[in-house]
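Comment thread on ticket #2218

A.B. wrote:
> Attaching the input chain for the structure job we discussed in standup.
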Amino acid sequence: MSKKKSGIWFFFASVQVAIVLLLVIAFFVMIGTLFPQREGAVELAGRIPPGLFSFLQKMQVFDLYHSVWFFILMGLLAVNLLICSLDRFPAAWRRFRSSPVPRDPDAFQDLPEENLFYSDSDVKKAADAAVSLLKKKYYSIKQADEAGSVYLCAQKGRFAHLGVYMVHLSVLGLICGAVIGSVFGIEGSVTMLEGETVSGINLRNGNSTMPLPFSVRCDKFTIERYKNGAPKLFQSDLTFIKNEKVVRSARLLVNHPVDFEGFRFYQASYGSAPGKKATLALLRDGGRR
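C.D. wrote:
> Ran it. Output below, let me know if you need it in another format.
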């Protein structure tokens, strides 16, 4: 049993496994970029065969970042980062804590001539001058006196030994946050017209709605276009109302969400809505009104 655990440990401690996982995740992200996600997949349904659309839907291609496959990959990457860190951290910590001072004269025997400096000064004066010079470029300097000789060790960038583990910890935090938000968070959408007030959202599964502990009013919607007609900017001016009082006003833009009482609002899309009135014309059999 111990050999099996050891094999699993060394497998996940491999850097090659991390590279493969990152490449597979990059491939999944590419698929998520090529295929429209979630509500955007409705338009694709009319352009491809129904059988192919059904297959892609079952494979969760249209909701890739909430799919079982993506969660498995994120979990494997988290395990890989955790084991890689635990496997290598003790040696990195020893390097961080230690700052050896060479006391053996033979350690300098193989230095090239251009790296040697000769001085007629007293040993103590030469050592003090060297310390003053090294302090300008290095943060940590240790000195050892032995057998009439002075040995100096200058060190800089000790925290670089721990930098990779800070990165690993940050990535693990992002993965945990994404999983917790996806599993325990609430995600939904709502369509609003100018001047309209809503107090609920349609949940992501499309089967139910959820009331909000406040109301949101869209005061104004603005869209700017390029000369070729493509949208340049679209924004919504929102007002948040609670207990029949205006609590906050905010401007919502693409990639600039608005947070309010634990909810985060994104500007997802825009469109035109039919008017509330319609004019009908009745024609007789002869085509006359």
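A.B. wrote:
> Thanks. Noting for the ticket: The chain has three domains: 2-97+161-184, 105-157, 188-265.
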